[in-house]
Amino acid sequence: MLSRMGAWVREFRLVFLLFGVLPVIIGSLVACDYYPQQFSLAYFFVSLVAIVLLHAGTIAFNDYFDYRSGADVINRERTPFTGGTGLLVDGTLKPSHVLGAGSLCFALCIALGMFIVFTRSPAVFLFGVVGVGLGSLYTAPPLRLAYRLLGEITWFLSFPMAALGALVVQAPPFSAGDVLAMQPALASAVVAAMPVAFLATAGFVVLEFPDYDADRASGKVGATVLIGKKASIFLFAAFCVLSIACLAGAVALGFLPVTALAALLLLPAMVWVGTGLARFHERPVRLVPYIVGGAIAIYLFSLVIIGSMAFK
After folding, report:
1. Total-model pTM
2. Rounded CA separation 117/110 (Å)
3. Are 137 and 145 in contact (CB under 8 A)?
4. For burial by CB atoms within 10 Å, which of 139, 180, 207, 235 has the most?
């Protein structure tokens, strides 16, 4: 029983699962700043649970459909964080069970979303449809977004979208006039989420390196397969630079407090990750410490921004 539970913990990959809560917290803090009288702690927690379920469903579907496509089956460079969990390939979990678990997560997410729609904010329906659609079709047919060079774009857009969704949960607009009146808050949610979105996308690029050969052989075209590993090192660096630029711009324009600049202290860690990519891009196993270090740096970077917003 314990080994089975451990397998399911591995299946849902906690290190990636919690990324989804970051933009929800950011959007909720913007709502608390602009609409303190409307802020509901209960709906905040409902939003967090919904986004975790959405990400859990996406992770399970990704594992299932990458297994079915053969991308994970032929992967000989699997690490603890890339190439799928390996739980389907080695028979630890049944494909039908993983598909069922992912479907259940999406169903529960939809149920919570509809609860919010009917009791709080009808506008959340649009964000829910887009979020569940992108999550479920990330590797599933017919769209298979991650196989069509849309994986990075989907991942990037999920951050400002989640921040906006969290905002409208707390401050529901009921008319076009309400939406127009919310423009400053909507802009704040998007701008505040952008530094995290760019840095998280840089981390996403890192995860593609160990899967390069398997993705290329199975027709899964991401940025790294399209432009090659060496060029992708520069793509990683570009996303890091864009994250810095967005953070500086957000502070300069007043969307984030000056204390958010403390997040820049985490950038040497990303430089270290970049040097690791340059040295070991052909040796996936050697990239594991850089994958872990990069993920920790992204979390800390995000938490510094969140802390600056919460205690400004």
Report:
1. 0.95
2. 10
3. yes
4. 139
